[in-house]
Amino acid sequence: MKFVVGCDSEEFKEYYKRNGFAGEQGTGELGITEEKIVTQDPSHLIVWRENNEIIGDAIWHETNTEEHRKGVPRDKEDKEILEKLLGGKKDFVELHEVWLMKEYRGRGYGKKFFVFFEEFMRNRGFDSIVYYADHPAALAICRKRGYKEDYLKSESEYVFYIPLKKHTSR
Fold first, then answer.
1. Could you report the per-residue pLDDT of 38-59, keeping only the tens digit for each?
2. For the segment 64-84, what is each residue's pLDDT rounded down to a tens digit?
C-alpha cells in the first residue's frame, strides 16, 4: 500500500461512485465541495493505492478559525472550539475527508496515513492540522497520536488539533 498525492479526476470519480459514497447530492457522485477542492489543486487529494487500485482517499484544504471555506463563515460554537484548541485566531489545514474501503481496515493503514499526512503538511510549511471525526477508529488514532480534542455538539463530532513542529537538526 502506498499514498499518492493527486489522481486522475475521472479515475477518482469512478472510484467514488463505485464505492457508493453519498456525496453532497446523495447519489454516489463526488460532492460539489470535494470536487471544487481537488479541481482547484489536485495535491489536495491523496489516494491510497494497493496493486495500482485506489483503496482509500483523503481530501484536505487550507482554512482558518474564521471561515470554513473561503466566504463561508464558521458558526459560533465551531469558531470558539477552534480558537480554544489553537490558542486564538489562526490559519490551519483541515483534513476534510478520510476514507478506506472496509476490506482494508484493521491493517494499520489509518495510522500510517496520519504519519504520512502530518509529515506531508510539515514539508509544505503548514504548522497545524484540524480534523473533524466521529468514527471510532479515527478517534483512537488521533488520541494515540496526541491530538488535542473537543466536542462539537451541533455536529455531534469531535474536533482534533495537532501542531506540527519543525524538525531541527543537531
1. 889 999 999 999 999 999 999 9
2. 999 887 778 899 999 999 999
Does the reported pTM lie above 0.85? yes
Domains of the chain from N-terminus onward:
2-163 (3.40.630.30)
Rounded Cα distance between 150 and 157, Å, is 9
Residue 95: name the closest of 125, 60, 147 by CA.
60
Could you tell me which residues come within 8 angstroms of residue 11 by beta carbon, excluding any fewer than 6 positions away?
A: 54
Best CA proximity match to 68, nearest among 46, 48, 41, 96: 96
- Type of residue numbered 162: I
- Asked whether 89 and 26 are in contact (CB, 8 A), the reply is no
